[in-house]
Design brief:
The complex is a heterodimer of chains A (about 290) and B (about 425). Chain A is α/β, with parallel strands linked by helices and about 290 residues long. Chain A has 2 domains: about 90 residues, Beta Barrel (Elongation Factor Tu (Ef-tu), domain 3); about 130 residues, Rossmann fold (3-Layer(aba) Sandwich). Helices cover about 20% and strands about 30% of the residues of chain A. A 7-stranded mixed β-sheet of chain A has the order 10-9-8-7-11-12-15, with helices on both faces. A 6-stranded antiparallel β-sheet of chain A has the order 4-3-6-1-2-5. In chain A, strands 13-14 form a two-stranded antiparallel sheet. Chain B has 2 domains: about 250 residues; about 120 residues, no CATH class. In chain B, about 30% of the residues lie in helices and about 20% in strands. Chain B is globular and about 65 Å long. The chains are: A alpha/beta (about 290), B alpha+beta (about 425).
């Protein structure tokens, strides 16, 4: 019988039924939900099934709203709190809308964690410069929390944050507490001011020339819209930060998160598998080509 | 003759040793077909000879072992892949006239069964179905529960797989079955499959497998490989096993031992086929070529012709891109996730909340050809094109992947579009 005889295919790809299905979500219950801005929500999740493996800051998960669909969303929580997952997402469509609406008690699906991390460990002994555009602060929050929990490992900690207008400021409680620390520099700017705003006005790159870090000894972590990544990377290069010490978190359409669906290609890289965090020397030839 | 020969992994491009210009490349390419004479390392003792009834017996043996037999058959004036009940349904006595944007079946004077090169459908139709259920979820007390599909995965016997398609299956194995997070459906269907390869004796006008080292003879990855020899009164199939499963099935068939004359005839058939490729593609330095031409105005010229229809991605045996569709039943209590083939020519393929990344046809064509010939090796450690020529044949406007590469190299496109 051929069923018990080794076939060419079984020899090449292994036996048929080993391994778990990477496309099946784990169920998590929403235990807390906080409105960050008009359309942005932070949720804390506890597992109903076996939890997903611990994540590293910068990695993402695929979040599933029952019957509606799935989207890739970065973790925004403290990586040392393995019992609770935290993410922050903005309502920009059907799936994110359904997820944002999930209140405590609701159950959503989670697959992950996937992709590369900010790799904070490799920045030991350096100045850490976190640069966020809008909701790009979410994956950087995880990294900043990790850095603060190991404060003695790093030199200066700098957070540069740009948002469209003061109403878009999220993680306000965190921002206040970080601003109150004597060994963290937090600079915030808004693209457009508003009545009552006494802070800086201008895009986030305008903060770069004066930001208090040593370009020869800094590692930069950047997350935001793609146009912001391009100009921030250029600005950091102009300050003298070498490309291999500039890390950028990119975004692409994703259907699987594990390198099977082909959607997240950016030239030769798969963003879900080789990213989302890349060093600028890898990304520069790709980031500056239109429609790649 | 077991296992170690059965690992094609990737094709071996016959890369010319010199890169001094198009003439040198052309000369080197002319050599390559002879370089690997098919069946060169096959020993006489490992080969048996089947008659056409012997071939039918092979099909019946596989069906008897519980396999669902899938093979070529004639339908709607094309050779398509279907589930077959017997070898009678195979395309006996047909071959094809194929060119850019053109495909016509032709009646042959003889009864050759594997003379039709490849039809529009790749075998991924069975190993990575165009639509499949990934899982079903049901609303319940604790939110919802997820159930994997209940149906057991089918056991397919793929009957008459050409060397180009064998190489393509090996490419999809790399992407879908041996990656860090293998696709369980593909891997399950693939691991259960039995592969009967058929060496190619009659390449079509759009074929260029020999340029990429993917044919015309099957080099591994099969359970049984056949070489069809049709000369005058003689119609026979030389069969060799490529796995323990293949070794087990051959003795059950009516056959006779092969003679040196049979083997010479088989070698001649495949050796001549290598000389009759309708197209040629110089594989030298393709990743570098495409990376260097990302901003080339040529992409706008191609976009004048390309309809962005996605035919090339559907007929391509290595294209693996899929999308998922989540939906509920009308009561909202049962949700499903289904997976469908997707195409990078679809505007939605690269959609982000701010719009599509590749909005223009030129960007989408550049992406497709760059992925196929440029970035695939870096992503998966294997080439993305096997030279089957389907994308040329089934492009409604006859865009020719080999001609576009020649144009990028600065040469005059050979063959060309319509």
């Amino acid at each position: 019988m051929t069923a018990v005889t080794e076939s060419a295919a079984a020899d090449l790809v292994g036996s048929a039924d080993s391994g778990t299905d990477p496309m099946v979500p784990h169920r998590y219950r929403v235990v807390r939900r906080r409105l960050e801005t008009r359309d942005t929500v932070t949720q804390l999740l506890e597992p109903l099934d076996e939890p997903i493996p611990a994540f590293a800051p910068g990695q993402f998960a695929m979040l599933y709203a029952f019957g509606v669909g799935e989207v890739p969303i970065s973790m925004s929580g403290d990586p040392s709190r393995v019992e609770l997952l935290q993410h922050t997402l903005r309502n920009v469509g059907a799936v994110t809308g359904a997820l944002c609406a999930a209140r405590p008690g609701a159950v959503i699906g989670v697959r992950g964690p996937f992709g590369t991390s900010w790799d904070l460990n490799s920045a030991y002994g350096h100045d850490l410069v976190f640069i966020a555009g809008g909701i790009g602060l979410a994956p950087l929050r995880s990294a900043l929390l990790q850095a603060l929990s190991q404060r003695e490992r790093y030199r200066r900690l700098v957070l540069l944050l740009g948002v469209r207008n003061p109403d878009e400021l999220m993680f306000r409680k965190d921002l206040r507490s970080w601003k109150g620390l004597f060994d963290v520099d937090v600079e915030i700017t808004v693209d457009r001011g508003a009545p009552g705003w006494r802070g800086q006005v201008g895009v986030v790159t305008t903060l770069l020339p004066q930001a208090p870090f040593d370009p020869d000894n800094a590692v930069a972590f950047v997350c935001g819209p793609e146009v912001m990544l391009r100009f921030t990377a250029l600005g950091l290069s102009q300050r003298g930060v070498p490309a291999q010490r500039i890390r950028l978190s990119t975004e692409r359409n994703m259907k699987c998160g594990v390198g099977l669906c082909g959607h997240c290609q950016l030239g030769p890289v798969l963003v879900c598998r080789d990213g989302p965090v890349f060093s600028y020397d890898r990304l520069a030839p790709l980031l500056h080509v239109r429609e790649l | 003759m077991v296992a170690d020969s059965a690992s094609p992994e990737t094709c071996r491009p016959r890369t010319p040793t010199t890169t001094e210009g198009a003439a040198a490349r052309a000369a080197a390419l002319a050599d390559v077909a002879l370089a690997d004479v098919a069946l060169a390392d096959v020993a006489l003792a490992d080969v048996v000879v089947l008659s056409p009834p012997g071939l039918a017996a092979l099909a019946n043996a596989l069906i008897g072992d519980g396999y669902r037999l899938v093979g070529p058959t004639v339908r709607s004036e094309a050779v398509v892949l279907e589930e077959l009940e017997s070898a009678d349904e195979l395309p006996w006595g047909w071959d094809v006239d194929a060119d850019a944007g053109r495909y016509r079946l032709r009646r042959r004077a003889d009864r050759a069964v594997f003379a039709h090169a490849v039809g529009p459908q790749p075998w991924k139709r069975f190993l990575l179905p165009p639509a499949s259920l990934l899982w079903r979820a049901r609303r319940g007390e604790s939110g919802f529960s997820v159930d994997p599909p209940e149906d057991p995965l089918p056991r397919y016997a793929l009957f008459g797989v050409r060397s180009c398609d064998l190489a393509a299956i090996a490419v999809q194995d790399r992407v879908l079955a041996t990656s860090a997070h293998p696709d369980s459906g593909y891997r399950g269907r693939r691991a259960r499959s039995f592969v009967v390869a058929a060496d190619c004796a009659t390449p079509a006008g759009t074929c260029f497998c020999s340029s990429l080292g993917c044919g015309p003879a099957a080099a591994g990855g099969y359970d049984v490989a056949l070489t069809e020899v049709v000369t005058g009164e003689e119609h026979l199939f030389l069969a060799r096993a490529g796995s323990a499963a293949g070794d087990a099935v051959l003795p059950r068939l009516p056959s006779r031992p092969a003679t040196p004359h049979d083997l010479d005839a088989a070698r001649a058939v495949v050796g001549e086929a290598a000389q009759r490729m309708g197209r040629r593609l110089d594989p030298d330095g393709l990743p570098e070529l495409l990376a260097a031409h990302r901003e080339d105005p040529h992409w706008n010229e191609v976009a004048q012709r390309c309809l962005s229809c996605g035919n090339c991605t559907l007929v391509c045996p290595t294209c693996f891109c899929t999308t998922v569709v989540d939906a509920t039943d009308v009561t909202g209590t049962v949700a499903e996730r289904r997976r469908h083939w997707d195409s990078c020519f679809d505007l939605d393929f690269s959609y982000l909340h701010a719009g599509s990344v590749r909005a223009s046809t030129s960007a989408r064509y550049r992406h497709w050809i760059s992925h196929k010939l440029g970035t695939w090796p870096e992503q998966f450690g294997t080439a993305g094109c096997v030279g089957c020529g389907r994308c040329i044949t089934w492009c409604p406007v006859g865009i020719d992947i080999t001609a576009e590469i020649a144009a990028l190299r600065g040469g005059v496109p050979e063959g060309g579009g319509l």
